[in-house]
Design goal:
The protein has about 150 residues and is an alpha+beta fold. The chain is built from three helices and five strands, in the order E-H-H-E-E-H-E-E. Helix 2 packs antiparallel against helix 3.
Length: about 150
């Protein structure tokens, strides 16, 4: 269901009701996780990661709440990688590479992908084994040696 793309030594899991408050709590938790894992405020991926995560959780709240009473965020990290997956139980799997103007609702993911790729990261949508939900995983490189 919600396994990170590659094994990473640090993990944190957050499960919330799919309500508007989930976005704030997920963002605050992400900030805490990054701080606990030693990812400095000057890290280039920090602010974009917070924005990407907030948008993905907001998307789950907005579009999946009727079928998914909870949204789960899994954080994984290592010395040079920060990854997170946002999971809900809505079966729709968005196309990550659709352009902003191709269809309603596609602009969000186009923005997420632009930010992710601009940082040298990657994203993937993984369906649940029963096809009843999906996770969107984002993996970003850390540049801890830069200031």
């Amino acid at each position: 269901m919600l396994t990170p793309p590659d094994p990473l030594p640090y993990r944190h899991v957050l499960t919330l009701p799919t309500t508007g408050q989930a976005v704030r709590v997920a963002r605050e938790t992400t900030e805490q996780v990054l701080e606990q894992w030693g990812v400095a405020a000057w890290e280039p991926c920090r602010d974009p990661a917070l924005l990407i995560l907030s948008e993905l959780v907001a998307n789950s709240v907005r579009h999946a709440a009727a079928l998914s009473p909870q949204v789960t965020v899994v954080f994984a990290g290592g010395p040079d990688t920060f990854a997170f997956g946002v999971h809900d139980r809505h079966p729709y799997r968005p196309a990550l590479f659709a352009s902003a103007g191709t269809a309603p609702g596609r602009g969000l993911l186009a923005t997420v992908m632009e930010l992710t790729h601009g940082l040298g990261g990657s994203a993937v949508v993984r369906g649940d084994a029963d096809e009843g939900g999906k996770s969107i995983w984002v993996t970003l490189p850390l540049r801890r040696g830069l200031r």
